[in-house]
Recover the amino acids of this structure.
């Protein structure tokens, strides 16, 4: 009887505990292991740093769950955090396949997901709970093509791209934009991410006598293609995809191999001399003993916008979603505002290496490429 | 054009020579225990990381010379092979082969996770064998590293051939591979011979890891790719045929580079698996016949 009374008393106390005592929770569901571990770790670090910095102003609890590389793990992680933590927002995986699996659940349960995944389809499904803080191919490939044609004056571009969804999406945008501007690709080759040797693809591209080599590859294949193109005596300029800007990619190559190499990306924190970005880079290095990349900064900005939503009075997932879908946020990398489908990022930069160091310089900025911000000014 | 063609062939042979070391170790264990060691690809990956870790202890000027750490890589990889044998094989050697598959898969995952924790997920570049640079031969530029890779891999293959065919130890290893019970009956200690085979195979895998890590980099998840290469090489050369697998690996390397340059990498990839299918259909025992009666 005494036990029963104790249980009833405990239940009454639990039910009557004030809800307001619970801190709002942000769940970070990213791939920390597997082939996207570098990008996922950057995501996690960016989100964690943003939440830790905000703790003195608005305490938010957080949890990190590894989604590895399968959609099943991502879905399990999402279900687990929804039932256990009742989050007001979720930081979602950079891996588009995982995001596609998680989105229907997020919509059904009504929780916003902030991600940096580049998969175009994520924001084409009419799901009002997705918010992407990294520019998609419709932004960065315009900058890529603009730089190649406008700054380098290329007339015969050639492209090597990945066979993955990421690679094909980039190839489709680049090929279309270049063709529309009257400078079609003179050669294009697709390679598997696990391909050990690129000389076959490079030799075929070389035979077309291009005046610039475009790459849209993941991290290791980018480094491999640059190294092997130099070994084949191809001294032409290289303009690569965003994987090249990652410090871990540059670390695979000698500085002299990087001479004449440029890359498109959303930002490059280690190259950016603005005081606020320098402060972020210093804080990131101190906290994680790593160099931040554009993925870390984008997720940092995305998480800070969630914090801003809470500061503005959002106390539920619906409140956070309403804030994200209606407000402009001036982040460190760029200004963010949804285009109506959840695409928040509309800027890109081009970075180039000088052949003397592995830290690139920002040589061109492309702001509000598709005019979303201007529409609301 | 001649220089590009020569460069492509050199790349193909260099890549194939490294694959040959992987395939050699794969088939040695296959023959010794009659089962596939699924951690073999991860031993290649581990060899790359052992090279990166050991070269860090060299003075700054010596870090470009991977040959200096080659003995250490061989030794550490051989130790890894012994651990693999004692943890993943001997405790379950009397169980069906599937138990060995599962235990070696588990050890492979442990190696992957260990590399992830120790070195991180980012790709890393291993040391060059003899430093950078190239030499010009009749207008053709030959990369020092590639020549060194081919030379070291050839020496290693020749060493294994000499060990197996010219020494008493080699004859014992072969006897155990053919019939362990009969070998035991005539006084050969099968357990020691099998452990030595695991050590030798892992040393070859570690060496391949060192050779591949400079040019192609290394990540913790590379093991599966190397396993696939070893499987294809063994299938082309004849399941269980040691030298058939070496030839299969060389053909594989040449195919991946030269055929890719001729017809495009994507078509070459499809053509490779089509060629493997054709070998299986028209010559099921591989180009050099099959040494094992059953496939694992």
């Amino acid at each position: 009887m005494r036990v029963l009374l104790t249980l009833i008393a405990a239940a009454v106390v639990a039910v009557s505990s004030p809800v307001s005592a619970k801190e709002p929770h942000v769940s970070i569901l990213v791939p920390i292991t597997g082939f996207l571990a570098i990008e996922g770790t950057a995501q996690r670090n960016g989100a964690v740093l943003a939440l830790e910095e905000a703790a003195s102003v608005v305490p938010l609890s957080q949890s990190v769950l590894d989604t590895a590389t399968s959609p099943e793990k991502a879905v399990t992680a999402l279900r687990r955090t929804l039932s256990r933590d009742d989050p007001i927002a979720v930081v979602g995986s950079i891996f588009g396949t995982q995001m596609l699996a998680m989105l229907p659940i997020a919509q059904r349960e009504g929780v916003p997901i902030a991600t940096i995944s580049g998969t175009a389809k994520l924001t084409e499904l009419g799901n009002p709970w997705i918010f992407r803080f990294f520019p998609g191919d419709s932004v960065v490939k315009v900058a890529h093509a603009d730089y190649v044609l406008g700054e380098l004056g290329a007339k015969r571009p050639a492209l090597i791209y990945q066979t993955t969804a990421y690679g094909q999406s980039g190839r489709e945008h680049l090929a279309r934009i270049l063709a529309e501007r009257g400078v079609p690709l003179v050669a294009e080759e697709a390679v598997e991410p696990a391909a050990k040797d690129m000389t076959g693809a490079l030799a075929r591209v070389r035979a077309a006598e291009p005046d610039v080599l475009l790459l849209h590859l993941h991290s290791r294949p980018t480094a491999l293609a640059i190294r092997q193109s130099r070994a084949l005596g191809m001294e032409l300029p290289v303009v690569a995809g965003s994987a090249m800007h990652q410090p871990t990619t540059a670390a695979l190559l000698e500085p002299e191999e990087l001479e004449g190499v440029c890359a498109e990306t959303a930002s490059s924190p280690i190259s950016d001399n603005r005081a606020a970005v320098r402060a972020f880079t210093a804080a990131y290095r101190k906290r994680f003993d790593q160099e931040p990349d554009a993925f870390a900064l984008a997720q940092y900005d995305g998480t800070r916008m969630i914090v801003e939503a809470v500061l503005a009075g959002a106390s539920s997932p619906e409140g956070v979603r309403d804030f994200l879908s209606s407000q402009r946020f001036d982040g460190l990398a760029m200004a963010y505002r949804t285009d109506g489908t959840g695409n928040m990022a509309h800027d890109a930069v081009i970075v180039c290496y000088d052949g003397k160091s592995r830290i690139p310089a920002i040589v061109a900025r492309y702001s509000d490429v598709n005019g979303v911000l201007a529409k609301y000014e | 054009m001649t220089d590009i063609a020569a460069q492509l062939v050199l790349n193909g042979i260099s890549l194939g020579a490294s694959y040959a070391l992987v395939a050699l170790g794969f088939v040695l264990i296959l023959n010794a225990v009659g089962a596939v060691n699924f951690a073999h690809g991860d031993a290649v990956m581990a060899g790359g990381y052992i090279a990166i870790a050991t070269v860090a202890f060299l003075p700054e000027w010596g870090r470009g010379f991977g040959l200096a750490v080659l003995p250490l890589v061989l030794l550490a990889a051989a130790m890894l092979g012994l651990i693999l044998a004692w943890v993943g094989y001997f405790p379950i050697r009397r169980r069906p082969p599937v138990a060995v598959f599962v235990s070696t898969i588990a050890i492979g995952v442990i190696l992957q996770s260990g590399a992830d924790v120790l070195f991180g997920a980012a790709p890393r570049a291993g040391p060059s064998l003899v430093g950078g640079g190239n030499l010009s031969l009749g207008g053709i530029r030959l990369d020092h590293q590639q020549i060194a890779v081919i030379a070291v891999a050839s020496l290693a293959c020749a060493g294994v051939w000499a060990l197996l065919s010219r020494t008493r130890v080699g004859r014992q290893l072969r006897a155990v591979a053919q019939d362990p019970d009969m070998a035991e009956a005539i006084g050969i200690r099968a357990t020691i011979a099998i452990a030595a085979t695991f050590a030798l195979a892992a040393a070859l895998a570690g060496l391949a890891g060192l050779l591949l890590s400079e040019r192609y980099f290394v990540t913790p998840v590379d093991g599966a790719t190397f396993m696939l290469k070893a499987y294809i090489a063994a299938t082309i050369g004849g399941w269980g045929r040691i030298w058939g697998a070496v030839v299969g690996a060389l053909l594989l390397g040449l195919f991946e580079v030269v055929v890719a340059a001729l017809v495009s990498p994507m078509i070459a990839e499809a053509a490779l698996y089509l060629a493997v299918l054709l070998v299986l259909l028209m010559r099921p025992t591989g180009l050099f016949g099959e040494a094992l009666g059953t496939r694992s």
Observations:
- Chain B touches chain A at residues 3-4, 7-8, 11-12, 15, 113, 116, 120-125, 141, 143, 212, 215-217, 219, 221, 225, 256-262, 264-266, 268-269 (CB under 8 Å).
- Strands of chain B lie at 134-137, 140-143.
- The two ends of chain B are 44 Å apart (CA to CA).
- The longest helix of chain B spans residues 2-33.
